[in-house]
Amino acid sequence: MRAYIIRRLLLAIPTLLGITAVTFLIIQLAPGNPAAMASRLGGEGLTDDAMSREIVEQTKKLYGLDKPIPVQYALWLKRLVTFDFGTSYKDHRTVLEKILERLPVSLQLSLTSIFLVYLFAVPIGVYSSTHQYSLSDNAITVFLFILYSLPNFWVATLLIMFLGGGDFLNVFPIYGLVSDNYEQLAFWGRVGDRLWHLVLPITCLTYGGLASISRFGRVGMLEAIRQDYVRTARAKGVSEKVVIFKHAFRNSIIPIVTLLAALLPAMLGGSVIVESIFSIPGMGQLAFESILARDYPVIMGVTTISALLTLIGILLADICYALVDPRISLE
Amino acid sequence: MKRGSEGYWAITWRQFRKRVLAMVGLALVLFLALVAILAPLLANDRPVMMRYEERYWFPALRDYPRFRNVDFAEVVAGFDEGDFAIFPPVRYTPTQYDLVERLKGPTPQHRLGTDDRGRDVLSRMIYGTRISLSVGFVAVSIYIVIGTILGALAGYFAGKVDMVISRFIEVMICFPTFFLIIAVIAFLPPSIYNIMIVIGVTGWTRVARLVRGEFLRLKGQDFVTSARALGASQFRIIFWHTLRNALGPVFVSATFGVAGAILTESALSFLGFGVPPPTPSWGDILSQSRQYIEFAWWLTVFPGAAIFLTITAYNLVGEGLRDAIDPRLRQ
To answer: From the candidates B150, B162, B169, B175, which should be mutated to test the interface with A, based on the most A CB atoms within 10 A?
Structure first.
């Protein structure tokens, strides 16, 4: 087991280098880069007005874009190793500081949402698979299919429109994480206020993952139920409950665990939309704002950090997978 | 004479046809394609066909210099006996604005209402179909090509080649795709081509993994060995003999991919990083609705429903196709 974990971690090193290379490639597109500038000539570029000329100069200086490529890459590597992404063009605070301030908010949102996804998806998957082709299974399948195809920015706007005031119902707050009178509230009042603010954003962040994980869960269970060991268990007279939960369920849950690794980047990506719609001060909103302002150091910082977070997620999922399934090895 | 046995695609079509929901999805997909192709004939302020001054004209299809800045209501007023004009069902172009009529809900003139410049929402949605479908198809074609080539090489050659390509895939998976897309978009001048390319270049990992898996499965089979024994070149073995047998799952993935790319494009437009104005796009209409969210429900409901229906249609076709090529599910 220890050997597996060590080898898995070693395999992550080339991936890490790959991440640095891809982010470096993105920087090569930056205005201020001679090659990118040449390709931009004549087009409706960003270099037309004075403000963007300033951005170009800053970017050129920040990433040393006038130096040869290997030197540029070395500079970028050095920045990554020290987590020094430079300072924001907008408020001159360091990018790392800005991200560390926003990260807990986004993690709180995505971890809550992942928890809810599994809390609901696993029972739904088990229920539909044990009642295959029944009326309730068909209804669940159709419902999940619809959830799966609903764009979250549409759902968010609809929820705000019909449940967030204006001409229609006013049930939920649609702005930020806490109310204006938060400071005056008692402890439980504060908890309630926070939770009340989270209802809509968490809903928008959760339902997509819920739909896909439930569908995977159902298929996984159906496959497990068809296996020989389930037939054997039934044949020797094990009760149906034990067959389902001990024999089939335990085997079907393993692939679902690895989907965690795919869920995290999807959540972080989705947070751009959800956080900017609901004005939640997380990484997603930071990304959105910095792209509007062409704040390149922040954009690069957010992109790199989110990739690193995902890599950590993938590694954790792989290690969990190996822990629960003794058959896994790196052969 | 006995005819040869049924081919792979004939069997797939026969299986596909049996699935009602899949056929509904296909009908919707074809309908949307027709709307996109016929957009100028469906929403236009010029007649599709007109008899005037003893001649037939097709002003919606051709640009006649003499009608360039003409109000067709006046032309119609000057009709002689026997002259006629057939107007499109929606008599507004997507960019034609009328500030008096701004932000009106559905009326008999503007069946889906107007936006904040008094442009007809239905007309903009009809033209928006073109943007959505073209981004979907071009982006997916780009990533199918990249994913197929990389996946085929990894699966066929295995060993070191596979190691390198698999690492590369893992690197790309680490980036939350939506973050990566908006980061790159932030560096590029706004244009529909950049959006297509960025979605294409960032989306290929799923196809690559799929094709790699198929090639690992197929390369030991007899037809590959016999092709090699007959002296076929490696290029021919990979991209002719083996690839044709791996195409089924690729098509399934491509169908789901079109849904995904349409979703991404509308999310980008919704955030304001999409196709530059005044080009009409579904996401762009939705993003306008955020400013008037207290009352302008028609700006939210209709374009969102169009996105949802399109995604559902492609997902239905994808599911049908996936079940149709799965021999275990043959009916």
So the answer is: B175
CA A234/CA A224 separation, integer angstroms: 13
The answer to whether residue B142 scores a pLDDT higher than 90 is yes
For A126-147, write each residue's pLDDT tens digit.
Answer: 999 888 888 998 899 889 989 9
- B266 CA: distance to closest CA in chain A (Å): 9
List, in order, residues 6 or more apart from A95 with CB less than 8 Å away: A85, A86, A87, A88, A297, A298, A300, A301
Chains A–B, number of C-beta pairs less than 8 Å apart: 149
Of A18, A150, A158, the CB nearest to B167: A18
Max CA separation in chain B (angstroms): 80
Integer Cα distance of A314 and A262 in angstroms: 8
Among A151, A166, A276, beta carbon nearest to B266: A151
Q: Which residues pair with A87 in a beta bridge?
A: A94
The three-class DSSP label of residue B228 is: helix
- State pTM to two decimals: 0.87
3-state secondary structure of A269: helix
Q: Has residue B259 got a pLDDT over 90?
A: yes
Residue closest to A312 by CA, chosen among A301, A323, A320: A320
Place of tokens 């982010």: A23
Q: For A44-58, A232-246, B166-180, B316-330, which range has the lowest pLDDT when averaged over its residues? A: A44-58
Report phi then psi at B247, rounded to 5.
Answer: -70, -30
Which has the closest alpha carbon to A179: A193, A169, A200, A195?
A: A193
**What is the interface pTM, i.e. ipTM, of the complex?**
0.86
Over residues A51-80, mean pLDDT:
76
Residue A29 token pair: 């597109």
pLDDT in tens, B23-45: 999 999 999 999 999 988 888 88
Q: Tell me: pLDDT of A329 over 80.
A: no
User: Is A272 touching B (CB cutoff 8 A)?
Assistant: yes
- List, as ranges, residues 143-172 from A with C-beta within 8 Å of B: 145-146, 148-151, 153-154, 157-158, 160-162, 164-168
Q: Following CA atoms B72, B73, B75, B77 in sequence, which dihedral angle do they give, to the nearest 10 degrees?
A: 170
End-to-end CA distance of chain B: 28
Rounded-to-integer distance, Cα A89 and Cα A57, Å: 11
* DSSP secondary structure, A190-232, as one string: HHHHHHHHHHHHHHHHHHHHHHHHHHHHHHHHHHHHTSHHHHH
